[in-house]
Amino acid sequence: MLKIAYAPVYKYSLPDGHRFPMIKYELLPEQLVYEGTVIEENFFSPGQLVKEEILLTHSQEYLHKLETQSLSKKEIRNIGFPMTTELVERGKYIAKGTFDCAMYARKQGVAMNIAGGTHHAFADHGEGFCVFNDIAIASNLLLSQNISSKILIIDLDVHQGNGTAHIFKDEPRVFTFSMHGEKNYPVRKEQSDLDIGVPDKTEDAPYIALLKDTLPRLIEDVNPDFVFYLSGVDILATDKLGRLAMTIDGCKERDRFVFEQCKRYNIPVAVSMGGGYSEDIRFIIDAHANTFRLAQEIFF
Ligand SMILES: [Zn+2]
């Protein structure tokens, strides 16, 4: 049975008019149950990370500032959410969810987090709606517990996984692959192990061709025993923050190809949702739901 990490705490209360569509974390599980893709039993509530687990990835100073609510105004502005203890606690549940998904995926091939993909969080600071880096935390836990020895991070959110790239720049056991809009945030890109910046207005066919040309070779070269997939849907043409021109079907084809490759090479994959900022929430939910629909179709 497909395991999906979710807890009500994922939906953080934001002031009216905030540009982050927080409601997706409530609507997505509802949609998946409503349409019959999953049942309630597919969901599990992650626990919380303990301090030592977070410190494998984040600096003591940064964690201390989060715990004591003493980030500067500028640091809080860079994260982009009102800073409260609730936001910090929420981040710990989400990151634990990604780690739990990794453990389920090892048994079942795939597992998915309703949130996560907070790839703009660095070891010592957060930015771009990201407080903790869930995939980095989960990767470091897999490595430290000798569960995994070579991890491939496939980051197909429209924004570069800058925090993830920086965290693992000197870690040969983690290969960071980011395919993103060349002109998108962040303006100053970090160096992933493999970066592919795609031009503005890239449509389905060239995007999918590029992915098909890259991913199988990459999997063979890196030879990972585990994959984290960041399936942001801000590649859609309708996205307010993205600059690409993908359709919902193109986005689905992307997910299908990633899942098929993981299955073909028999590598477990844990999925974190990542971004999605289309004006119409239905596009966001439908594109994210496709990732879950495909996981059910391909792995179960
Ligand atoms: Zn994004």
Write a compact overview of the structure shown.
The protein is an alpha/beta fold and 300 residues long.
Sequence of secondary-structure elements: EHEHHHHEHEHEEHEHEH
- Helical segment tally? 10
Rough outline: globular
- Secondary-structure-based class equals alpha/beta
Give the spatial strand order of the biggest sheet. Answer: 2-1-3-8-7-4-5-6
Main pleated-sheet profile: 8 strands, parallel
pLDDT < 50 runs, ≥5 residues: none
Cα Rg: 17 Å
pLDDT averaged over residues: 97
Tell me what the structure shows.
The chain is of the alpha/beta class. The protein has 10 helices and 8 strands. It has an 8-stranded parallel sheet, sandwiched between helices. β7 (226-230), α9 (248-264) and β8 form a beta-alpha-beta unit. α5 (85-108) packs across α6, α8 (204-222) runs parallel beside α9 (248-264) and α9 (248-264) runs parallel beside α10. The model has no long low-confidence stretch (mean pLDDT 97). It binds zinc ion (ZN). Zinc ion binds next to loops.
Write the SSE topology.
Blueprint (H helix, E strand, L loop, with lengths): L2 E3 L18 H11 L8 E2 L6 H4 L5 H8 L5 H7 L5 H24 L1 E4 L20 H11 L6 E5 L6 H6 L6 E8 L12 E5 L5 H19 L3 E5 L17 H17 L4 E4 L8 H19 L1
Parallel strand pairs: 1-2, 1-3, 3-8, 4-5, 4-7, 5-6, 7-8
Bound molecules: zinc ion (ZN).
Descriptive terms for the model:
300 residues; alpha/beta; eight-stranded parallel beta sheet; 8 strands; 12% strand; globular; binds zinc ion
